[in-house]
Amino acid sequence: MSGQQMLKFVSIERAMPEKRDANVRRHDFHEIYAEYAHEKAREQAGRCSQCGVPYCQSHCPLHNNIPDWLMLTAEGRLREAYELSQATNTFPEICGRICPQDRLCEGNCVIEQAGHGTVTIGAVEKYITDTAWEEGWVEPIAPAVERDESVGIIGAGPGGLAAADVLRRAGLQVTVYDRYDRAGGLMTYGIPGFKLEKPVVMRRNEQLEAGGVEFVLDCNVGEDISFDAIRGRHDAVLIATGVYKSRELTGPGAGSQGIVRALDYLTASNRKSFGDDVPEFDSGELNAEGKRVVVIGGGDTAMDCVRTAVRQGAKSVKCLYRRDRANMPGSQREVANAEEEGVEFVWLSAPKGFVGDPVEEVVVQRMLLGTPDATGRQTPEVIEGADYAEPADMVIKALGFEPEELPKLWGVDGLEVTRWGTVKAEFTTGRTSIPGVYAVGDIVRGASLVVWAIRDGRDAAQAILEDLAAQPAVAAE
Ligand code: FAD
Ligand code: SF4
Ligand code: SF4
């Protein structure tokens, strides 16, 4: 009977799917968690207390109907659980893998607050949709009617693809342009396979293509085709280009050989996983094998770099971060994973300069946390006279990303940007300062999360549908 399988959190302890041993997983790029066995997924879903006011749901950017799909899973009604889960999330199995759940749904689960350990929402979400793929429940998009209006989407990351999915289901003609040779954005070339295996992303690209979404790849808008030409081809245009300009290091020797950008490094590694020809990897420039690697930064990109370097067979991997562990932006779960895999974190340290070209040493200055700034965050201050030399053959810069200046890059008049260079757009609709042009994801928010890009893409697609419907009638069929 409905609900009988639930509220098991007192008798059943929280259990994640099995995590592969660090000594095994550090040698490959496969995901580190196994899939739940069927009974385990049911059992873990049954720990949910079915809150009347589910905080998990309100802290999920997509407002997923978590308590209901947990109940359906606990009752073994997996197909219904899948239908419900995919109704609010374009890529549930991807979010289940890579959302920082500890900061979103799971971090706000009342059971966690009551000291019983959160319901493993992400792992169950992944299990439901992975099962749906295995069982053949995930079908190609089949619009009930074909419509004449067309939408051009620039950028095939999660923001652009989520919008493409909604628009195509409504019968619109959708073309996605991307400068890369594969769709998926950072899900394909940024995030490493040990967090998100590439076939999981590729099957989504194939599903969209099979459903009639047209992909124009290897097409750099602004170079291969102008933004105006794209506007001329479509009734609406969505910008979903992400943020790619790396923050750079300063100081003596910062331009030396062997100092590389995080995204160049991760992209090369991901391309190798696809079996691509990557000369910069083969030459050793973007390969950490046998090297003493120092990664600079404390965010999730830095975590992905250190763990990639371990897998490539680096001699040693150290991560320098100017604040302490409690004040780092990256996920604590990822730090723990990295430490298990052999990464050494050097907290309260920052590079002052570099010796050698190619690089041989990082001159490291020790820091302390001083007075809080306007946001209340303590500012790192240099401890004078405490510098030391850290030997390094490869230094990876993972200091964050900024938006490229699109209006200038594309020669677009009237596209307003914020003072941070992100495109100015309404958060709930993606409407920009140019009628018929929308923007979503990182290019609007700054570097953010896949789940937020999906949310934006879905919202903007709805706004596009409404705006097109408000225009003079367009032929159906
Ligand atoms: P993107 O995914 O960046 O996609 C933009 C697309 O636009 C790209 O394919 C690009 O090629 C294309 N493009 C750009 N300019 C042009 C142009 N001129 N012409 C044609 N195409 C163009 N988020 C999480 O939720 N969990 C994580 O674990 C996580 N890990 C991350 C790890 C790394 C290393 C990085 C860098 C980011 C990570 N993120 C993570 C953040 C997440 O990947 C992004 O927030 C998300 O991908 C943003 O989606 P988007 O669609 O806005 O842009
Ligand atoms: Fe949690 Fe992300 Fe899934 Fe929402 S989409 S339920 S935040 S894992
Ligand atoms: Fe279930 Fe936790 Fe969500 Fe409550 S907050 S409905 S216990 S998952």
From TrEMBL:
UniProt key word Disulfide bond: no
Protein name: NAD(P)-dependent oxidoreductase
SUPFAM superfamilies per record: alpha-helical ferredoxin, Nucleotide-binding domain
One Pfam family hit: Fer4_20
One Gene Ontology MF term: oxidoreductase activity
Record domain Dihydroprymidine dehydrogenase: where: 25-136
FAD/NAD(P)-binding domain sequence ranges: 151-457
Species annotation: Rhodosalinus halophilus
Entry keyword set: 4Fe-4S, Iron, Iron-sulfur, Metal-binding, Oxidoreductase
NCBIfam families reported in the protein's UniProt record: gltD_gamma_fam
Keyword Signal set for record: no
